[in-house]
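[audit] Reproducing an earlier prediction to check determinism. Same input, same settings, fresh worker. If the tokens differ from the archived copy the diff job will pick it up downstream; this log only records the rerun itself.
[audit] input (265 residues):
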Amino acid sequence: MRRLAAALAGLVLTGAGVAEARPLRVMALDQCADQYVLALRPDAELALSPRADDPDAWLREAAAGRRRVRPTLEAAIAFRPDVVVRYWGGEPRLLARLEASGVRVVTIEDATDFNGIRANIRTVSQSLGGPERGETLASRMDATLRAAAPAPSARQRSALYLTAGGFTAGKGTLVDAILAAAGYVNAAPGPFFAPVSVERIALYPPARFVLGFFDQVRGDWRGTGRHPVVQRAAKGKVAARLPAAALTCPAWFAADAAAMLKAGS
């Protein structure tokens, strides 16, 4: 490991002298980071994560043909990134080695509202040398939110968010912010993420459901959300089915989820 770290340090120093002679090199350590770098620096030389084109990646089509690497020190040495972007990816020793070698590591913070997403957009775009792209993306998100907002005279409606695995999301989550943006009152009984039992739904069926991650056919196929009792309770009361791609990352496309919710109302 010492040799690998020394090699990385040498490559970073070598690369620093020719930084102006080559495109910015950006390495993404997880699928959420993939979305940010694809949106904010598509002109850079990118090394994306292995999941960049999975069905639950929002910009999976933009990832086509791009380099994919595993989030390892060996991959970093081979690629020689100028900037590394991550949400949850990269184990602590890798991150420490990268920073010690002079590589800038940018972390996407968990966001529970759209202000947090705006902060993430600005942090990443500034770190990638394209703050104007960040402002454009944030403005686009805000325009989508304005379009998704209910009319002032609209009657408030309540809805329970439910995943195929049987979880809901209350106050203190980005899902709650998505529901509010589309004019819904969150029917979750408590804050944060929590399981919902079949019995509760049978005894206290919500007025409406907002279903998430049901498009992942192979995921949680035996989960509470797919139980026949729950399916009967939700029949004719589904406000929207939000795709996994809109929910897997605290990013600007959470506004698109709100727009989908309004469109399905």
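[audit] rerun output stored. Observation attached for the diff report: The chain has ten helices and eleven strands.
[audit] end
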